Protein 1
Amino acid sequence: MFQKAKNIDTAFKQVRLTAILVIIGCVLLCMAISYQCLSMVSGMQDKIYVLANDKALEAYASTRKENIPVEARDHVKTFHHAFFSLEPDEKVIRENINKALYLADFSAKREYDNMLEKGYFTQIIAGNVSQTIQVDSVKVNLRDYPYPFRCYATQQLVRPTSTVTRSLVTQGFLRNISRSDHNSHGFLIEQWRILENKDTHVRNRQ
């Protein structure tokens, strides 16, 4: 009789141990599944899909710090394209300059006022000149703040009788500001000035 009781007690202990092990295994499995699900959700939040030409393109989110070099260079390029892309049309000139002035401080406005005073834009319109710019490179020093930069570009002025190529070198500083519809990069160009803007080649069109 005592042997039967002992066997029952032993069996009960084994069942209890088995149950505890099963419960622990279930808890660990649930934790692993939960962790895996959270990782997948977190990974999915870093991805967005852009619909372009009826095709879904995957894009990845990243921190601003990772994108600062790219955004800084693109901000400088965008500003120069807006400021120096001119057509013999007062409305086009005004729209481009307004876009550029949202990206820089009073130093760009001062340069614009100087060009306006010298009659530069009047000559563009009167002479039917189209001015384009190609930014060759932008050097940004991210070790200092505000970030100093230097921009190297090539301009082309297409006149009715000739095409003039110019070299353009400018420099300034980039300061962080809030992003907006007019300033998507969140930078502001400060102390901007033109270091060089000279003719390098003239080609007759006739």
Protein 2
Amino acid sequence: MAIPEQCVWLSEPSTAKVDIAKLTGFDGVILDVEHGLFELRSLDWMVSYIKANGLRAIVKVLGPEREPIQQALDFGADAVVIPHVESVEHAMRVTAFAKFPPLGDRSLAGGRTATYVAYTDEGVAEMDRSTKCYPMIEDAGALEGVEEILALDTVDGIFVGPTDLALRREGGIYTANDAEVEDILRAARAANAAGKPWIFPAWSAKEQDIAVREGAAIVGLAMEYSVLYSGFAKVKSEFEQIVERNGS
């Protein structure tokens, strides 16, 4: 059984958090630009720093538009995750921005990805192979068309977003109930059948069990805010127990 690659999920730029991810044995970092505090300069140096530490740099871009997709890839991201993909037709259009013509519609830019010199045909083809594009399955229309989305040549795999998917399927707040798990399994098994990887933010033991059992390629295991909250709460609780034992 293959072990999924394990990633830290960051919403703020921090080299220290990348260092800790490296020291604790994580494989990569997911940068949440959509809901995070990244601007272009910080995204640029964060991607470089992650890769310099030998970790995979995955960027969940600001939205399903040309500019944020191309910018993340121009900075050297190993993969882009594209949120709010609504349908097969929408996926066809926006994932094209992650691949160069004739495969897609990504624009050429000088700089890091061209080694600051010039592109070659071989270099462009290699970037299309090595940089990955993962549309998010977090909309009812995307889930309905997941098999067709996975069949697109500009799609390297999918990122299953259970929280928004639950809301958009009119299920309310995501709790990993039976119906929500079935949606996750549908997307995961479609990816497996297509021979393409799927990514999953697996914060709970139940979600992690699904990820391992169903063959997720990459999992988000540690979301920085949740880890900080748990750590702060644990320290405070332990200190309060000491105070209580001493009768204060």
